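Whether sequence alone determines local backbone shape is best considered at the level of individual chains. The sequence in question and its structure tokens are set out directly beneath this paragraph.

***
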Amino acid sequence: MTTFDAREWVYFSSGNANILLKYVGNSDPNLTKKLLRLKRVGNKNCDERIKSDLLKDYFLHSKCIELSSKFLLDLNHKLIKTNPELAVPASTNGEILLISIFARNHGILMPNLLNEVNNTVHLGNHLKVHYGDSELVLEMKPKWLYNLKTRNCRNCCLSKYRGKQIINCPLDLLCENKIPNWSKRIVQKLRDSEHSINYINSLELILTEFFMKNKIIGYLFMLQNRYYDSSRESYNRRILNLKSADEVPIELIESQTLRDVTLFLNIHSLSRNNYDIVKDTVDKPKTLISINNDSFFEVDCKLIDLDLKTSLKFEYWKETELKLIESGLYTSDKYGLVGCNRIVDII
């Protein structure tokens, strides 16, 4: 069992399923630049993770560790004081819980991919850019990569239904001719934000070259659709007929999990000498980019959020799809929906 001191961990970020804590102590150098991920109360996702030979090189190295109840209780009390907005109604023996300490006395220790950045620009739904003095990190969710049969894709329809801003459609990344404009819109939005961002003048070409060269989007497209034909209609036939969690096949659970992974692109510059040294030995998740044989960059791609979804989410999936169908957004030419990409040629 690992014994940590709650005073050496602070809140970093959170989602619906997990809370991330950042190590700020100095008692253990091995924890420097590390995050601890703990499940939130109500998180019913499985402890099992997606397994894939295609994606294994992109997985973020992490370690499951057993934690003491004292550490988790101390941490819970600390977070209630420092981050009361995280509090949930759930309680055990009168204790308000932020993390599921009595269900799971373990957490995931993982590298902090944002350790070298200290600013964040929120570009839109599931799309952020983090930057610091020497690094830039693009964070995105390449959700619902599929062969489009309707006018508008599920990603854009759901964003519009929820009143979220649409900056880019992930389906553009499936077509080589669409990728440059996808990258251009990212850079334009960053310029409009008036943030002083390193690499801004090269970023459009960096992103375009990365998505042209690296196979990650193609891999995700194949894996999201490997059990069904790659259309939303195929998904509908299965999800809308489900009556109970027991009917949810593991194939659907895996597909839904892969539709919700988070992708991080860590971008940093290289000297000409370093570029020449590593250009013939770089591994799969990393992509080297040369711009006009003058500027050199390395892009390291990592995936997180790989815990298998619970079959209990089938009602939410079903309800969401029914709402989108009834809204008419899939076929609408209104509300700023301009039609999404139907071409898949990056495989």
